Amino acid sequence: MTASKAKIAIGGTVIALIVLAAIFAPLVAPHDPYQQQVILRLKPPVWMTGGTWRFPLGTDSYGRDVLSRLIFGSRLSILVGIASVVLSMLIGTTAGVLAGYVGGKTEEVIMRTVDAQTAFPDVLLAILFVAALGGSFLNLIVVLGISGWMVYARIMFGLTRSLRERPFVEAAVSFGGRSGYIMLRHILPQLVPVLTVVATLQVGQMILQETALSFLGLGVPPPAATWGNILAEGRDRLFLAPWIANSAGIAIVTLVLTVNILGNGLREWLDPKS
Amino acid sequence: MTTEQRGTTDDRLLSVRDLKVTFLSRHGSALAVKGVDFDLARGKVLAIVGESGCGKSATAMSLMHLLPRRSARIEGRMLLRGSDIGALSEAEMNDVRGKHMAIIFQEPMTSLNPLLTIGYQLGEPIRYHLGLDRAATQRRAIELIDLVGIPAAVQIMRSYPHQLSGGMRQRVMIAMALSCDPDILIADEPTTALDVTIQAQIIELLRRIQRRTGMSVIIITHDLGVVSEFADEVIVMYAGRVVESGSVYEVLEDPRHPYTNGLLASIPDIDDEGERLQTIPGNVPNPRTVTEGCWFHPRCVRKGERCEREVPTLATVEAASRRQVACFHPVEHNELRELSDG
After folding, report:
1. Rounded CA separation B116/B121 (Å)
2. Measured on CA atoms in the order B3, B186, B232, B339, is the torsion positive or negative?
């Protein structure tokens, strides 16, 4: 097995397990993630003294099971990650292909917007949005989608510009093909391999962004179980109950890392030169 | 007699008058085509001949509006059946491209989209222009594959470009160009990228289809063998200008411009075994530089003092024929083709 296939296999398997756990969260999670039991608060995980198998990863300061909260939290993290990637991919690809194919003023307007927004800090943009719209699941997706489209626009712009000069595109024009048709039928399909890789790598980025925003209190408001929220709650008890923040941190790192491994594997596998 | 007066209006399908193409770039502009006139009659084959960089492809591309508008300025009139296609908008031009005029390029290996089947791509111009339903499009595509001499049409329809050879792909490109029965087919060096044996087949195919359909053809080439086999009329271009024009027989048998003469002298002759091949000394001038007088004079063996000062215009040399030459010292009748060794 080549290195690229190994990466795809490892990344794919771990992600599949996480996604399955997220889908079947009510069956997999041992407890209700929102059930508070004050008597059982701050129980350490099973490998520490005082830990029990009842709460394998311990409980938080309200007595909620950390493992269950992590499993339910993965739903939101993954959903937000994928939905925001889809949104930014749609915006960015449309903008990039248009700028690259039409050129001229269209190109100037789109690409200068990209430059301007790239120079603007993401977090500041997110704060503006949340201040204006309020924190919710949907707003989080919109914020992340809008803050991430420039990557796609830049890459698709460059690719489209070079594709536009390819003889088969020129031939399609010479037979009377309309611009919209040529962009959809002749240019877009050529971009799919690159899009797949960029989007996969971006899912990891978006999950990180989501946890960062939730950590700052700009994501889905508590008590919703999200990885960023668990991390934020754990911060207050970092010395007394380090397992809360640590387990969220490890979950985030694992998911982002495996997504990146999968993305890199796909990139190597799709690259004809390697 | 000027070009305006020759022929009747009726048999003129395409008239190009004073066509100028300027390529604009950050480093300045370059006049690649400097005022070209020609007529194409219905059912005739016109060859445009010249070295690389003489403006022949730029002429063809500007007829189809295929040069990027931002980096190429096109001036002059291009009358297709009396209406100026130079003035058409991009959307109006889409209805002309592929339907009234079609072009085939020199790179058959890359002119087809690698991700789409031959059948799908062959159907594209039919769908753009004829609005046929799926079954009719399919029937038309199969008909076209048969027309260009590819066996097993149904199987070819399902194949992808990489499964076909260069010659087959050029046949597919020809089929696509023919799909809407265009009035004019522009073939921009259609055989340059192909093997010699395939070249002959493709030219033979084009000639057969031209005879059968009666369409007009503009063939751009630097292969004078192709010209003599296929064309009726020929224009010889040098540095963006027409230097000689006339019927193929006249121009090839009795070239009057020193450049045409030089081109013909550079063809290897099977009888002159062991003799050194003649060449035209020097290179085609860079369109950005400005040459005083006739653009060919630095390379010309017949140049006189006047050639360094004045630009010769295309003028009729014999009253009885339509041929025109732009030269102050044209090659005399039946003068031996010879060039200096310099």
Report:
1. 7
2. positive
The reply to whether A190 touches chain B by the CB within 8 Å rule is yes
Residue A105 in contact with partner chain B when CB distance is under 8 A: no
Highest mean pLDDT among A56-60, A105-109, B289-293, B302-306: A105-109
**Terminal C-alpha separation, chain B:** 37
Instruction: Answer yes or no: do A166 and B96 touch at CB < 8 A.
Output: no
**Disruptive mutation site among B24, B106, B113 for chain A (greatest number of A CBs within 10 Å):** B113
Residue found by looking up tokens 């001036």 in the block? B75
Looking at residue B123, what is its pLDDT?
92
Contact B64 A168 (CB under 8 A): no
pTM attached to this predicted model: 0.82
Stretch (H or E) spanning B243 = strand B241-247
> Considering only CB atoms, which chain A residues are within 8 Å of B70?
103-104
Nearest chain A residue to B111 by CA: give it.
A168
CB neighbour list of residue B201: distance below 8 Å, 6 or more residues apart:
B167
Question: What strands, in cross-sheet order, belong to the sheet with B241-247?
Answer: B101-104, B184-188, B216-221, B45-49, B233-238, B241-247, B324-325, B315-316
Residue B258, Cβ density class (10 Å: 0-12 exposed, 13-18 middle, ≥19 buried)? buried
Could you please state the CATH topology (level 3) that the domain comprising A3-26+44-270 is classified under: MetI-like fold (1.10.3720)
Phi and psi for A90 in degrees, rounded to 5? -60, -50
* Per-residue pLDDT tens over the stretch A128-138: 888 888 778 88
